Amino acid sequence: MAVAVGVPIGQELIDAVDPEMLAIIKKEKSRQKRCLELIASENFISKAVTQALGSCFTNKYSEGMVGQRFVNTLCSLFIYSLVNKSGL
Fold it and tell me: Can you give the residue range of the structural domain that contains 1?
């Protein structure tokens, strides 16, 4: 793992932190663009949902026992509203 000079902790980009993971992500994105998906339950999310999933709202955690988890309600409502607006 490389450390970016002058970049605050937690603000590093994936290409500096884990170039191998970035390569895997790019390869999968390319595969999804090129290949026909025949899995009925597999969906392509909108750019807005992708942005929301990569936002500060993912800095949340869950608490509680399995099956009785508490997850930040604001985050859940925000993601839900984006999904509904995108027509998914």
Answer: 1-37
